[in-house]
Design a protein that fits this description.
By secondary structure, the chain is mainly alpha-helical. The chain has 19 helices and 5 strands.
């Protein structure tokens, strides 16, 4: 009997509420994918696609390449969803960081549901502002033929084109944000994450086609990848997915004991529980930060024709040793940076002490905070090194097996972390509905197995 049984998917459609949520989620994701093919006015889509093809062939990249990945290829066609959900992601990260350093925002975030709604509203405002700024600079970038190796992207440049581009791309981002919120409220899973995942998965057919052309099973004379190499790639993919699942789900359980309290005739506390400290707290956010910073010089070099700056930018191109080393170090740094922002051992220690909780063998208060910080620092190192390895692994696959980056990118990097993490989260939510209605969950033989 196999470990994973996908028959619960059939049972999912036997539960009316879950069936409705699944259909709504599928319909909203379909609307998003349709919008990824609606072009922005005034753009020569074929010329822009040719430019992005040249970027891929040079194994380099710019920050626009990140936007293109998160928008599911909409950026290379400059459709109405070209910006994708990146402004919302950037705004969310900025608000999360500001909440940790600004006392007023931290106070609002602790006001429960009302505080969450306020922070979410600030995030929306930030999304609109970032979308306007990004779309305006994209319009300026598109108007200069010198940056596109002679290709004319904009048919009628000027303020008319800029205003239309800003309005179109900003409205598209707001609409995607609304779709994500509707999925969150009426569908299943995290709406924003599912939209990003749908964009990444949409690139799989193109990668499979490229791989098929390279293998050329019916024309040995044109074959660039041998069957044995294809087997190795398949084994790599399985190993990467398996390891990502292990690290994503990995936690260090810190045991916590609560002292007994007698209030009137009732006895409270006395139970044992644990604090799950995630091995990979930062997740894909560390890669996004690192990519944005390391690709910024290459992006800026296209605007500043300075010889010294151009040489520096050339050293920070994918495939160079300097790029790989700096990229890995940045990922490790941002893993620790983000973990320090979201995990506060002092607050956790004070809350445990307030409710009579303690870690066996550790005194409450400052010693508990020091112990939690000690443990978190060490497990974060393991998670950071793994994330750094997964991020640079596609570069090694591309160099060793001589495959295009579009194919190699599915063996690690941002895409695989997002897809695996979102799929696991969505399956957990579906499983919780199944177990509530006494159906068997996805994992057999585990502690979450349901009842028939």
């Amino acid at each position: 009997m196999s470990l994973v049984d996908f028959s619960p998917l059939i049972n999912s459609f036997k539960i009316p509420d879950l069936k409705k949520r699944l259909l709504i989620t599928g319909a909203l994701l379909a609307i998003y994918r349709v919008g990824c093919y609606v072009p922005t006015p005034g753009i020569d889509g074929a010329a822009l696609a040719e430019f992005f093809t040249r970027i891929a062939q040079t194994q380099g990249g710019t920050i626009f390449g990140i936007i293109n990945m998160f928008s599911g290829g909409a950026m290379e066609k400059l459709t109405i969803f070209a910006l994708g959900i990146m402004p919302y992601i950037s705004s969310s990260i900025i608000m999360q960081l500001l909440t940790a350093v600004i006392p007023a925002l931290e106070k609002i975030s602790k006001e429960g549901k009302a505080g969450y709604e306020k922070i979410n509203q600030f995030t929306r405002y930030g999304t609109v502002g970032l979308a306007v700024i990004q779309s305006f600079f994209i319009a300026l970038w598109l108007e200069n033929p010198a940056r596109f190796e002679g290709l004319k992207i904009v048919m009628d440049p000027g303020w008319g084109f800029r205003i239309i581009t800003v309005l179109t791309l900003t409205t598209g981002t707001i609409f995607i944000m609304w779709l994500g919120e509707q999925i969150q409220e009426r569908g299943i899973g995290n709406g924003i994450s599912l939209i990003i995942t749908a964009g990444i998965i949409s690139r799989i057919p193109a990668a499979i086609h490229q791989l098929f052309v390279l293998v050329s099973p019916f024309a040995a004379s044109r074959r660039q990848i041998q069957p044995f190499t294809l087997i190795i790639m398949t084994l790599f993919l399985v190993a990467v997915v398996f390891s990502v699942i292990l690290i994503t789900q990995g936690v260090r359980k810190i045991p916590v004991q609560y002292a007994r309290r007698i209030v009137g005739r009732k006895i409270y506390g006395g139970q044992s529980t644990y604090i799950p400290l995630k091995v990979d707290t930062a997740g894909v956010i560390s890669i996004i930060f690192a990519q944005s910073i390391i690709l910024f010089p290459a992006t800026l070099a296209s605007f500043i024709p300075n010889p010294g700056f151009q040489r520096l930018a050339q050293g920070l191109i994918r495939g160079q040793v300097l790029y790989t080393a700096v990229y890995a170090l940045l990922i490790v740094f941002f893993c620790y940076f983000y973990t320090a922002i979201v995990f506060n051992p002092q607050d956790l220690s004070e809350n445990m002490k307030k409710y009579g909780g303690f870690i066996p063998g550790i005194r409450p208060g400052a010693p508990t905070a020091e112990f939690l910080d000690y443990v978190m620092t060490r497990i974060t190192l393991a998670g950071a090194l793994f994330i750094a390895f997964i991020a640079i692994f596609p570069d090694f696959v591309m160099a060793w097996l001589k495959v295009p980056y579009l194919v190699a990118s599915f063996f690690g990097g941002t895409g695989i972390l997002i897809v695996v993490g979102v799929m696991l989260d969505t399956l957990k939510q579906i499983e919780s509905h199944l177990l509530t209605h006494h159906y068997e969950g996805f994992i057999k033989g585990g502690h979450m197995r349901g009842r028939r």
